[in-house]
Every structure is written in C-alpha cells, then in structure tokens.
Amino acid sequence: MLATQQPVLRRFWYPVMPLEQLDDGPKPFRLMNEELVLWLDSEGDPHAAEDRCAHRTARLSLGWVEGDNIVCPYHGWTYDGGGGCVRIPQTPDRPAGRAKVRAFHAEARYGYVWVCLGDPLTDIPHMPEANEPGYRVIHQFYEVWRTAGLRLMENSFDNAHFSFVHRESFGQFDKPIPARLNIVEEDFGFRFETVAPVNNPPLQKKLLKMDSDTTERHMTSKWFMPFGRKLNIRYPNGLVHAIITYATPIDDEHSMICQWAYRSDSEEDAPAQQIIAFDRQVTEEDKRVLESTDHDAPLDTASGEERHMPSDQPGMVMRKMLMALLARFGEEEARVSGARIPMKEKAS
Ligand code: FES
Ligand code: CO
C-alpha cells in the first residue's frame, strides 16, 4: 500500500511536530507528500496550511508570524489560519479578495501539533495517563526513518521479533514462540493483552529496580489506524511504562517517528535520560531491520507476495482492516507498479 495514494488516509490525525519547535516561528513539514507550513497564533494554537504562497509560490515557512497570521517572506502577503489572504501590503486600499492557500485541521495535543488533511474520520486517540496523577511524560524520539508506516506498525505488535531483533537488549533468543493473541477489533483499530518473558539487562535492572536477570512484560497493545500504537507495559513490581509511537507518513518511503512515554515512577527513581537511552537501543535494533524492508507492504495477504506465520496475526488483522477501510471508501490499494522494489543500498 502506498499511503500517499490512498485519499482516505488523509482523514486521520497525525502528530507532525513537537509544539515547542514552533516557538521561534513557522516551520515546514511534509505530510503524505503535502508541503505544509505550521505556525502558532497569539493564543498558542497551531495552524497548518499549504506551504506555497498564492502570489509567486514562495514558501510561507520562510516567513514569520504576525499576530495570528503568517506573512509571506517575498512580498508580505498575509494569511489567516483559514488560509484566506487578509493583507496585500502593496494594495492596502483594496480588499485582499480571492487569494487564498489551502488550510488544514490542526490541534495541539500531548506536546505535539496534530494535523488532519481531510475531514476527520475519528478523534485524536485519548491517552488517559496524560491527565492522571502519578504519571510523568518523557518525550523520546522525533526522527525520520526510511520505512513505511505499515512496516513499523506491524513490527510494533509482532512479539516474534523480540528473540531475534532484540536479542542483545531484552529478547530471549531461546524462546522464539510468542503467546497466541486474542485480538479485539475496534472502530479504527484493535487491542490485545499478552504476557511476554523478557531479559532484564543491567540498565533495565537499575531502571526497573528489579534484581532478576529475567522478568515479564504484561502488555496491553492498542493500534490506532493507520499508523499509531500504544504499548502499555506493566512489570511484576507494578511499574508502568506506556509508549506511544506514531509513524507519521512523510511520503511512501519515509516516516516521522514520534515516540513519547508515560511512566509511573519518578525522575529520582529512573532518570528520563537513562530511560531514553534504553529505549534508544531497542529502537535502533528495530530501525536497522525495518529500513531494510520493501516500503510497499501488500495488504492482500493471499497474494503470495509475502509468506506468513501464526505470530503475524496482528499485522494480518491490520492489513485486513485497512483493505476493508479502502473498500468502504471505494478505493483500490495503490502499489508500486511492476514487481519487487530493488533492495536499498546498504549503508557502508
Ligand atoms: Fe508571497 Fe509574493 S510570493 S507575497
Ligand atoms: Co522491536
């Protein structure tokens, strides 16, 4: 599936940028191949519009914010949050008239600007920990990966990769068969609960305050269609580490990885920098493998293009639900034309 060519995927919310990155002025972001300008108005509310002035196409993201509006750096045409041109400095006596740029839905939530390019089908997912006492938030990663959203999503729910991809961090190489899952399908997503045995390497021992070499992760996993997941991990000592990861589609080959965590312990118990360092190791292990996969993952699991095994169940359900979504909106799955995409060059 090529995300940028499935119009229905424009109707979901994606986190696109940490809000604080807009404190010093407008910034560009490419979402599903749409070049956007993002800015904060005088109330601190975010706006998103086409990053291309209606006059001579200059990038508005090179301009500046004046009050609630964005000013083009080239001749100063000024646009409001709805994309309407409200001022043309060279013709102050005439109404700015019909000039406008396309504007998109933008919201501030969980420290990020979220954007929906179309008419939203669902809300931004609710994260109860964001408002519950006893949790702190740790912003972990905001970085581009050369992988498609679906690849990262199915990886996030695939407990069979722990023993291999994560054998140097928490995976148990001698326990390659994960528990069967009972996946509960929901509107625009699914959830399941499972328990996985894991290794407890030295840094984790310290962060979890658990002495044993192995432990168990009690996991509640949620998929937010199309490219969001929440993994709530509870350790036997009651500690909760809930991670939210979005693979925001930049284009068909690149995702902006937005990851933050809610923790039930305190900064004195476990410094955020050390928690990030451990999750960084784990994430790098995933990244290396995911960037080696073809970006165009087929939704049709019966096509024979890829082989499957029982532990692929979350990814299979994901593909089935995405197929049903496309069908519901009268879309065909867009694919890279021709056969297999060439292997990506290996980094030296
Ligand atoms: Fe934007 Fe001229 S190009 S004002
Ligand atoms: Co992984």
Automatic annotation (TrEMBL):
InterPro entries in alphabetical order: Cholesterol_7-desaturase, Rieske_2Fe-2S, Rieske_2Fe-2S_sf, VanA_C_cat
Domain Rieske: 13-115
Keyword match Phosphoprotein: no
Composition skew (Basic and acidic residues), residue ranges: 286-310
Coiled-coil segments on the chain, per record: none
UniProt-listed PANTHER family: BLR4922 PROTEIN (PTHR21266:SF59), IRON-SULFUR DOMAIN CONTAINING PROTEIN (PTHR21266)
Protein name (Swiss-Prot/TrEMBL): Rieske (2Fe-2S) domain-containing protein
Taxonomic path: Bacteria, Pseudomonadati, Pseudomonadota, Gammaproteobacteria, Oceanospirillales
